[in-house]
Amino acid sequence: MSLTQISYFVAVAEEQHVGRAAQRLHVSQPPVTRQIRQLEDELGTRLFDRTPRGVRLLPAGERFLAHARAILAEVDAARRAVAESLSKDMSDGACLLKHVPIAMRGQPS
Questions:
Q1: DSSP state of 27
Q2: Burial of 108: CB neighbours in 10 Å, binned 0-12, 13-18, 19+
Q3: At what angle do helices 18-25 and 3-15 cross, to 10 degrees?
């Protein structure tokens, strides 16, 4: 299961339409459909009922949606924490040497 599959699943669930979800994600529709099918195959159950007007969540999809949103929220929180840590390190000067060109290292000022 990948973060791409989870984010595509959440977008389709919220939009209730694969095409609109694809537009929201700035991708074409076939990759969204493929990722959803792969996710369903991995989970061993259908998550959506496909209708002529879009999709609707099946009970398994409804249960998975809360978990999928929580996973994406945790990943976002982890990214923010790392970014804040890097920002703090930079303001403390801890990462300053990383950004000095190699040719300059060890050279007298």
A1: S
A2: exposed
A3: 120
Of 57, 21, 54, 17, nearest in space to 40 by CA: 57
Residue 52 amino acid letter: P
CA atoms of 67 and 60, how far apart (whole Å): 11
Token output for 16: 């209730």
- What are residue 54's phi and psi, to 5 degrees? 150, -140
Nearest to 6 by CA among 23, 25, 20: 25
CA-nearest of 26, 3, 25, 21 to 74 is 3
Q: What is the pLDDT along the chain (109 residues), one digit of tens a residue?
A: 999 999 999 999 999 999 999 999 999 999 999 999 999 999 999 999 999 999 999 999 999 999 999 999 999 999 888 888 777 666 655 555 555 454 544 545 4
